[in-house]
Amino acid sequence: MSLFNSLRISASGLTAxxxxxxxxxxxxxxVNTTRTAAGGPYRRKVAVLEExxxxxxxxxxxxxxxxxxxxGVRVAAIAEDTSPPQRVYNPGHPDADADxxxxxxxxxxxxxxxxxxxxxxxxxxxxxxxxxxxxxxxRTLDIGxxx
Length: 147
Prior knowledge:
Shape: elongated
Helix content: 40-55%
CATH class: Mainly Alpha
CATH topology: Helix Hairpins
Structural class: alpha+beta
Strand order of the largest sheet: 1-2
Number of strands: 4
């Protein structure tokens, strides 16, 4: 694996985790949104990550491309969570039904915070890997300079 390939893989991880953090922030911002343009309460969103192909050869399925390593990660889609909304008894709310229940978003703050911590740790791990690759490149240049 080349130096630039490892940097590219780490950079793809940084981009994916940043988008994942943006989706989590959007979920937390809409934790109390009971009415959306689509109708009904806000639906929790989840970033779906997938392995990014190496390049054209990999898309064609050439075996040599499989031996060179993979190309990192990318966001395949941002999907909506299919779990049902929460029913909360609040008869004074403008969106309450005839029985006094309001459909609240299916966003759990604790789950979002755990997801935020894991995304932050993954981001930090990619930064560490990128810095390690950079340090190895600098050490390699130093060896050439001292010889």
